[in-house]
Amino acid sequence: MASSAANGGAVAWSNPDNAKVSDNARAVAASIAEETTSQYLHGSNFGFAIPVGATIDGVKIEVEGRVTVGAASSNFVNLILAGNLVDDYEISIPGLDGTDTYYATGGPTELWGATLTPAIVNASNFGVAVFFYNGFPTASTIEIDHIRVTVYYTGGAVAGSSAGFFATE
């Protein structure tokens, strides 16, 4: 799995399990200082059941969250495949601000620089890592209420609930 040392993250997430469901109980990275990043908040074990033989066409990741203090100048998402962070391919989350809403990245044709198969996506160690960077002079606090993953495959889409394992490392 990813570790905070791997991304240099200085600020841990409190209550990472709170990002499993959209219920206004939030995972929080508090007081992210200027030129500092949060640790990874990652979730896995989404419970996908993509049929054998299907072709994975894309993955959309939605993060429901907000900035409650300061601002986040950069917000990033990576995939976790077989428990390992795909750290050479990350996508920015657009527009995280003070509004508690879903911010989406990826989509029906975004494969995140990976070759995805049903076996990979269905595995309990397929997941998502989210981290935030503060480039502003004022400390920032980020709150994440929910992380939702949708996998698109030939023949339709299956949405995975975020009832998986969430942690910071």
Please outline the helices and strands.
Layout: H1 4-7, E1 27-32, E2 36-37, E3 41-44, E4 56-69, E5 74-81, E6 84-85, E7 91-92, E8 101-106, H2 118-122, E9 127-134, E10 140-153, E11 156-160, E12 165-168
Major beta sheet, specifics?
7 strands, antiparallel
Count of helical segments? 2
Strand content: 35-45%
What is the general shape?
Answer: elongated
Supply the CATH class: Mainly Beta
**Class from secondary-structure proportions:** mainly beta
Question: Separation of termini?
Answer: 8 Å
Mean pLDDT: 81
Describe the structure.
The protein has 169 residues and is mainly beta. It has a single domain (4-168), classed as Sandwich (Jelly Rolls). It has helices at 4-7, 118-122, and strands at residues 27-32, 36-37, 41-44, 56-69, 74-81, 84-85, 91-92, 101-106, 127-134, 140-153, 156-160, 165-168. Strands 2, 3, 5, 6, 7, 9 and 12 form a seven-stranded antiparallel sheet that branches. Strands 1, 4, 8, 10 and 11 form a five-stranded antiparallel sheet that branches. The longest helix has 5 residues, at 118-122.
